[in-house]
């Protein structure tokens, strides 16, 4: 089994797995360096309303959706279209403009998730 090592001591190439990532020391095909790790929630999707830092304008926050970033962004687009408003995805939290809780709760429950109304 032939292996090459770097001066820093990291494995660069292994005949078993091929090229190795210097950051996470996994094979390049299984590299986890560029993927943000989001903490696993408790399995409950929470829908809340918030106005802090928005000059009194309210937004609806949806947290705890069990999707990765790419899927979450696509699903947020669907939710925004159903509400007929704008919004964004920040750090795994979907923000939708206005108080849209009455529209969002049934849509999220239809996906089979446990949904709770949280906050004001």
Automatic annotation (TrEMBL):
Protein's UniProt keywords contain Nucleotide-binding: no
Single Gene Ontology MF annotation: mRNA binding
Segment forming the signal sequence: none
Record's keyword terms, sorted: Initiation factor, Protein biosynthesis, Translation regulation
Superkingdom of the source species: Bacteria
TM region(s), chain numbering: none
One Pfam family recorded for the sequence: SUI1
Domain SUI1: from-to ranges: 46-112
BP GO terms, sorted: formation of translation preinitiation complex; regulation of translation; translation reinitiation
Keyword Protein biosynthesis: yes
Matches recorded under NCBIfam families: PRK06824.1, SUI1_rel
Family indicated by similarity: Belongs to the SUI1 family.
PANTHER family, per database record: DENSITY-REGULATED PROTEIN (PTHR12789:SF0), DENSITY-REGULATED PROTEIN HOMOLOG (PTHR12789)
Name of this chain's protein: Translation initiation factor SUI1-related protein
């Amino acid at each position: 089994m032939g292996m090459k090592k770097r001066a820093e001591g990291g494995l660069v190439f292994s005949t078993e797995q091929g090229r190795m990532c210097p950051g996470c020391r996994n094979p390049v095909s299984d590299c986890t360096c560029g993927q943000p790790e989001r903490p696993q929630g408790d399995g409950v999707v929470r829908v809340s309303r918030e106005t802090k830092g928005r000059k009194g304008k309210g937004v609806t926050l949806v947290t705890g959706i069990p999707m990765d970033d790419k899927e979450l962004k696509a699903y947020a687009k669907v939710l925004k279209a159903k509400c007929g408003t704008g919004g964004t995805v920040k750090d795994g939290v979907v923000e939708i403009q206005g108080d849209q809780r009455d529209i969002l709760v049934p849509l999220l429950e239809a996906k089979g998730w446990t949904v709770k109304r949280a906050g004001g």
